[in-house]
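Design a sequence for this backbone.
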């Protein structure tokens, strides 16, 4: 079948035949249909829309897909304009790709699931995020793309299976609170000293033997919890931070 010469009504029938959002997105992004009249393509298994361009079509499709699959108590318009989304306790193994279309999100809670891997495309699109909860999952490796979210002020990754913190964490210079407790982390990169706005760092119950002296640059740090590690001595540079409270 030649997708490039299909009539709008034919495309509509194809859309109706697709049961999964990911498959439909792949189709629509792969084939370009010239002069396609989206007002004709108005009905499919998720709902009805009037004339709309492709990106808007996919965005609304993604929203209704989330609502339908996970029984969210929102309308499409409500979901698209939300700044906070609670997606915890959903028993999911991966972050739904549809979430990447919710570009207005400021706070995303994905705690208490079974997430192993975070799709990179999702992270790249959620540039407005300020607070991200990925705690209590099964994450082993933190993708570098996570550290391109420069607007993040709070990041929680505790109670996972993380063994290494990438040096790119130093890019999150707006971060104020960082939770890394209950993982398998053996060392922190010196670049963590670039988080000059950090106020709270929890990294208890890991396998740390020392802390980088560059953490002395964190002059706004007020709370540091390093209990239940193997740290014998805290660097003087950290101890001298004004008003810091260290729990060890």
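Sequence:
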């Amino acid at each position: 079948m030649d997708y490039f010469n299909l009539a709008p009504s034919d495309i509509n029938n194809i859309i109706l035949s697709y049961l999964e959002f990911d498959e439909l997105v792949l189709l629509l992004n792969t084939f370009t249909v010239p002069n396609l009249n989206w007002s004709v393509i108005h009905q499919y298994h998720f709902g009805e829309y009037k004339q709309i361009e492709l990106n808007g079509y996919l965005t609304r499709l993604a929203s209704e897909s989330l609502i339908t699959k996970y029984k969210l108590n929102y309308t499409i318009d409500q979901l698209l304009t939300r700044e906070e989304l609670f997606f915890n306790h959903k028993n999911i193994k991966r972050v739904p790709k549809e979430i990447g279309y919710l570009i207005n999100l400021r706070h995303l809670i994905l705690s208490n699931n079974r997430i192993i891997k975070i799709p990179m495309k999702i992270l790249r699109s959620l540039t407005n995020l300020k607070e991200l909860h990925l705690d209590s999952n099964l994450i082993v490796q933190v993708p570098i793309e996570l550290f391109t979210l420069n607007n993040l002020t709070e990041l929680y990754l505790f109670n996972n299976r993380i063994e290494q913190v990438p040096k790119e964490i130093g890019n999150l210079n707006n971060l104020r609170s960082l939770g890394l407790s209950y993982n398998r982390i053996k060392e922190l990169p010196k670049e963590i000293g670039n988080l000059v706005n950090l106020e709270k760092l929890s990294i208890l119950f890991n396998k740390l033997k020392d802390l980088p002296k560059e953490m002395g640059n964190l002059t706004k740090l007020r709370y540091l919890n390093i209990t239940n590690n193997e740290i014998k001595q805290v660097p003087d540079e950290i101890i001298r931070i004004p008003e810091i409270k260290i729990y060890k």
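The chain is about 20% helix and 10% strand.
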